[in-house]
Amino acid sequence: MKNFTFKINENNYSVKIVSQENSTIQLEVNGTNYSVKMKEEIKTRKTPILVRNPSKAAPVAPVKVNPSSSAKCKILAPIPGVILTLNVKVGDTIKENDLLLVLEAMKMENSIVSEKSGVVTAVNVTVGQQVLQGEVMIELE
């Protein structure tokens, strides 16, 4: 199994572990066989297995939303930060993925784009204003 070399009182010993069964180990020291019994059984580590019970609840169907042209859309702050630039004003017509504003958060500039086409009905922020996560910044219709 394993080979070891020990130096005890300036004498070298070549030790080979031949086998191990429970707390008894068969050794070969410099060619002589020995049977050694350990005081405690050597514990083997087992990798834990995560077992999950199957969910008994029925699977949840995804919610389907019928987008209508008159539905309002709110642009929320994804993270807390400061408004660096504001690229739209009330009454502007925008298309999907148009740049609405730039939000600085954790020393990074985050471009906030439109989720859908529409007309800006409200701008609730100004340049330099601090916003919290989830705060409504712009409303579209």
Strand content: over 45%
Distance from N terminus to C terminus (CA atoms, Å) equals: 75 Å
Strand order of the largest sheet: 1-2-3-4
For CATH, the homologous superfamily of the largest domain is named as: RNA polymerase II/Efflux pump adaptor protein, barrel-sandwich hybrid domain
CATH class of the largest domain: Mainly Beta
Kindly state the percentage of residues in helix. under 10%
Order of helices and strands: EEEEEEEEEEEE
Based on the structure given, which CATH architecture of the largest domain is correct?
Beta Barrel
Count of spatially separate domains: 2
What would you say about this model in short?
The chain is 0% helix and 48% strand. It has 141 residues and is mostly beta strands. Strand 8 and strand 9 (108-113) form a beta hairpin.
Detailed description of the structure:
This protein is mostly beta strands. The chain has two domains: 2-37, no CATH class; 73-140, Beta Barrel (OB fold (Dihydrolipoamide Acetyltransferase, E2P)), CATH 2.40.50. Helices cover 0% and strands 48% of the residues. It has no helices and twelve strands. The chain has strands spanning 2-8, 11-21, 24-29, 32-37, 73-76, 81-86, 93-94, 99-105, 108-113, 118-123, 130-131, 136-140. The strands form three sheets. The chain has a four-stranded antiparallel beta sheet with strand order 1-2-3-4, with no helix packed on it. A four-stranded antiparallel beta sheet has the order 5-12-10-7, with no helix packed on it. Strands 9-8-6-11 form a four-stranded antiparallel beta sheet, with no helix packed on it. Strand 1 and strand 2 form a beta hairpin. The chain is rod-shaped, with a radius of gyration of 35 Å. The N and C termini lie far apart (75 Å).
